[in-house]
UniProtKB/TrEMBL annotation:
This is Response regulator. InterPro entries: Bact_response_regulator, CheY-like_superfamily, Sig_transdc_resp-reg_receiver. GO terms for biological process: phosphorelay signal transduction system. The modification 4-aspartylphosphate is found at D56. It comes from Massilia cellulosiltytica. It comes from the Bacteria. Keywords: Phosphoprotein. Residues 7-117 form the Response regulatory domain.
Length: 121
Protein backbone atom coordinates (compact mmCIF):
# COMPACT_ATOMS: atom_id res chain seq x y z
CA UNK A 1 0.00 0.00 0.00
CA UNK A 2 1.53 3.35 -0.99
CA UNK A 3 2.15 5.91 1.75
CA UNK A 4 -0.46 8.63 2.27
CA UNK A 5 0.34 11.93 0.57
CA UNK A 6 1.94 14.56 2.82
CA UNK A 7 -0.42 16.60 4.99
CA UNK A 8 -0.09 20.38 4.74
CA UNK A 9 -1.70 22.83 7.15
CA UNK A 10 -2.35 26.29 5.71
CA UNK A 11 -3.06 29.12 8.19
CA UNK A 12 -4.29 32.52 7.03
CA UNK A 13 -6.97 34.92 8.23
CA UNK A 14 -8.12 35.63 4.66
CA UNK A 15 -10.67 33.10 3.40
CA UNK A 16 -9.85 33.74 -0.26
CA UNK A 17 -6.20 32.84 0.32
CA UNK A 18 -7.16 29.66 2.19
CA UNK A 19 -9.45 28.70 -0.68
CA UNK A 20 -6.80 29.23 -3.38
CA UNK A 21 -4.07 27.39 -1.44
CA UNK A 22 -6.39 24.50 -0.57
CA UNK A 23 -7.45 24.10 -4.22
CA UNK A 24 -3.95 24.25 -5.70
CA UNK A 25 -2.33 22.01 -3.10
CA UNK A 26 -5.14 19.44 -3.27
CA UNK A 27 -4.92 19.31 -7.06
CA UNK A 28 -1.15 18.79 -6.67
CA UNK A 29 -1.91 15.68 -4.59
CA UNK A 30 -1.41 16.91 -1.03
CA UNK A 31 -3.81 16.37 1.86
CA UNK A 32 -4.68 19.90 2.96
CA UNK A 33 -6.13 21.26 6.19
CA UNK A 34 -6.88 24.97 6.58
CA UNK A 35 -7.24 27.21 9.62
CA UNK A 36 -8.33 30.85 9.77
CA UNK A 37 -6.39 31.58 12.97
CA UNK A 38 -3.65 30.26 15.24
CA UNK A 39 -5.97 28.65 17.80
CA UNK A 40 -7.66 26.55 15.11
CA UNK A 41 -4.25 25.63 13.69
CA UNK A 42 -3.11 24.33 17.08
CA UNK A 43 -6.31 22.27 17.41
CA UNK A 44 -5.63 20.70 14.02
CA UNK A 45 -2.03 19.97 15.08
CA UNK A 46 -3.28 18.35 18.29
CA UNK A 47 -5.55 16.06 16.24
CA UNK A 48 -2.68 14.50 14.28
CA UNK A 49 0.73 15.01 12.70
CA UNK A 50 1.35 17.57 9.96
CA UNK A 51 4.09 17.25 7.34
CA UNK A 52 4.34 20.98 6.54
CA UNK A 53 2.96 24.22 7.98
CA UNK A 54 2.34 27.16 5.64
CA UNK A 55 1.32 30.25 7.58
CA UNK A 56 0.71 33.94 7.05
CA UNK A 57 2.74 36.15 9.37
CA UNK A 58 0.27 38.88 10.36
CA UNK A 59 -2.97 37.52 11.81
CA UNK A 60 -5.16 38.51 14.76
CA UNK A 61 -4.51 36.58 17.96
CA UNK A 62 -1.36 34.62 17.15
CA UNK A 63 1.09 35.68 14.45
CA UNK A 64 2.75 33.10 12.21
CA UNK A 65 5.86 32.73 14.38
CA UNK A 66 3.69 32.09 17.46
CA UNK A 67 1.77 29.44 15.49
CA UNK A 68 5.07 27.77 14.54
CA UNK A 69 6.26 27.72 18.17
CA UNK A 70 2.92 26.31 19.39
CA UNK A 71 2.87 23.55 16.77
CA UNK A 72 6.54 22.74 17.31
CA UNK A 73 5.62 22.14 20.94
CA UNK A 74 3.67 19.17 19.53
CA UNK A 75 6.02 18.33 16.64
CA UNK A 76 9.53 19.71 17.30
CA UNK A 77 10.81 18.99 13.78
CA UNK A 78 7.81 20.48 11.94
CA UNK A 79 8.97 22.23 8.75
CA UNK A 80 7.32 25.59 8.14
CA UNK A 81 6.95 28.27 5.52
CA UNK A 82 5.97 31.83 6.47
CA UNK A 83 4.34 34.02 3.83
CA UNK A 84 4.08 37.76 4.38
CA UNK A 85 3.63 40.96 2.46
CA UNK A 86 6.12 42.65 4.80
CA UNK A 87 9.48 40.84 5.20
CA UNK A 88 10.86 43.55 7.52
CA UNK A 89 7.98 43.07 9.96
CA UNK A 90 8.39 39.29 9.94
CA UNK A 91 12.04 39.65 10.94
CA UNK A 92 14.37 36.70 11.45
CA UNK A 93 12.82 33.28 11.01
CA UNK A 94 13.25 30.45 13.52
CA UNK A 95 15.55 27.58 12.46
CA UNK A 96 14.15 25.45 9.66
CA UNK A 97 11.60 28.05 8.57
CA UNK A 98 11.53 29.38 5.01
CA UNK A 99 10.07 32.74 4.03
CA UNK A 100 8.22 33.83 0.90
CA UNK A 101 6.94 37.32 0.11
CA UNK A 102 3.36 37.93 -0.98
CA UNK A 103 2.07 37.70 -3.59
CA UNK A 104 3.10 34.06 -3.95
CA UNK A 105 3.18 32.31 -7.30
CA UNK A 106 1.51 28.91 -6.95
CA UNK A 107 4.08 27.36 -9.30
CA UNK A 108 6.92 28.69 -7.11
CA UNK A 109 5.17 27.34 -4.02
CA UNK A 110 4.72 23.90 -5.58
CA UNK A 111 8.42 23.90 -6.55
CA UNK A 112 9.53 24.69 -2.97
CA UNK A 113 7.27 22.27 -1.05
CA UNK A 114 9.17 19.02 -1.79
CA UNK A 115 12.39 20.51 -0.35
CA UNK A 116 10.55 21.41 2.86
CA UNK A 117 8.77 18.14 3.55
CA UNK A 118 10.86 15.52 5.29
CA UNK A 119 10.39 12.22 3.50
CA UNK A 120 10.38 9.03 5.60
CA UNK A 121 13.60 7.02 5.30
Amino acid sequence: MPPAPPRILVVDDEEAILYVFERYLSIAGYRVSVAGNGRDAVRIGEAGPIDLLITDFRMPGMNGIEVIHALRGLQPELPALVISGNPIEAGTMPPGVRFLSKPVSMSDLLDIIPSLIRQPV
